[in-house]
Amino acid sequence: MPLKLMYITNNADVAKIAQKAGVDRIFVDLEFVGKELRQPGDTVKSSHSIADVINMRKILGKSKLVVRVNPISEPSAVFCGSKKEIDDVIAAGADLVMLPMAKSLEEIQTFLSYVNGRAQTILLLETAEAVADLDHILSIGGFDEVHIGLNDLHLAYKKKFMFELLTDGTVERLCNKFRVAGVPYGFGGIARIGHGMLPAEYVIGEHYRLGSGAAILSRSFCDIKNTTDLNEVERLFVEGVGKIRVHEKKTECFTPDEFMINQKTTKELVQAICRNIGG
């Protein structure tokens, strides 16, 4: 089963291109509460709005609309509060609503009560607290999918590089729990084939080995801050998604030995990257 590919954008022209190229989900990102404190510096921080959700709903047909809301929060001077935000997102046409940074079952249940079955729900697993209580969270359930957020989770565990969690057994342990619970799951992001600090082909091999069903196309897949020509954006998406799908068909036929070789190579590449990061 091909990976459900997600791409974060509030640019309508880019979303149309991504949808046409075969991206399964367009991802509007409303999260801002606490994000600068958790992820200082040059990490992906969006400035999307409810208006972007409304605009995306108008142009999307084949691709599903995913909206990441803020962590469960009360109203404040800078935030309308989770209940109103979730009501607004669903009214604007979100197909799937994603909850980030949950630390407790209570927060997850509050999120689910606010959605109240009006959209599908994705739990973004990215805190050490939620991982520690995962057995209890999965036993209660109620959400439709889980996505492991490698960026925040690797920071929580004080790792140098987010894909260390893929090679130290953390992601495998979590995926095994999701599989037993019967919850669809995905993790992290991927660049283009042959590109990125950790090229997509190795990560895709791990997605298939671990039974993952979804991945986010990373900023490096098509960074529209640096690539503004729409013809070039279209070329990157058509070529990039096409190469991912070709590699997936190859990966589907991997033998156990080939999966083991891919896993070993991935670990060696991650270790080399961590050595270069230093610190």
Question: What would you say this structure looks like, in words?
Answer:
A 9-stranded parallel β-sheet has the order 7-6-5-4-3-2-1-9-8, covered by helices on one side. With 279 residues, it is α/β, with parallel strands linked by helices. The chain is built from 13 helices and 9 strands. It has a single domain, classed as TIM Barrel, CATH 3.20.20.60. The protein has helices at 12-21, 35-38, 50-59, 82-91, 105-115, 128-132, 134-140, 150-156, 164-167, 170-181, 200-210, 230-252, 256-277; strands spanning 4-8, 25-29, 64-68, 96-99, 120-125, 145-148, 185-187, 189-190, 214-217. Helix 11 packs across helix 12 (230-252) and helix 11 (200-210) crosses helix 13.
Spell out the key features of this protein.
single chain, 279 residues, alpha/beta, TIM Barrel, 9-stranded parallel sheet, 13 helices, 9 strands, 49% helix
Write a concise synopsis of the structure shown.
With 279 residues, this protein is α/β, with parallel strands linked by helices. The chain contains 13 helices and nine strands.
List the helices and strands and how they pair.
Layout: E1 4-8, H1 12-21, E2 25-29, H2 35-38, H3 50-59, E3 64-68, H4 82-91, E4 96-99, H5 105-115, E5 120-125, H6 128-132, H7 134-140, E6 145-148, H8 150-156, H9 164-167, H10 170-181, E7 185-187, E8 189-190, H11 200-210, E9 214-217, H12 230-252, H13 256-277
Parallel strand pairs: 1-2, 1-9, 2-3, 3-4, 4-5, 5-6, 6-7, 8-9
Helix pairs in contact: 1-12, 11-12, 11-13
